[in-house]
Request: fold
Amino acid sequence: MLTPRDQLLTGHDEFQRLVQEHSQYSQRLESLTQKRYLTDDEKLEEVRLKKLKLRLKDQMQSLESQFQRQSA
Reply:
């Protein structure tokens, strides 16, 4: 049986887009954390990316909750 998240990943375009965008931000953050030192601009980018990732995570959780309510 598929989880609500798996069902959304296979059939919900907006959810798929959010997951993909979240993954891209994660990859960029990973590349920043690999650096020994960050420039001021990179530090700002790191903070911005963390906020964007959190916003996307909240949106994905909201969609999952809506999906679960509709399925029940």
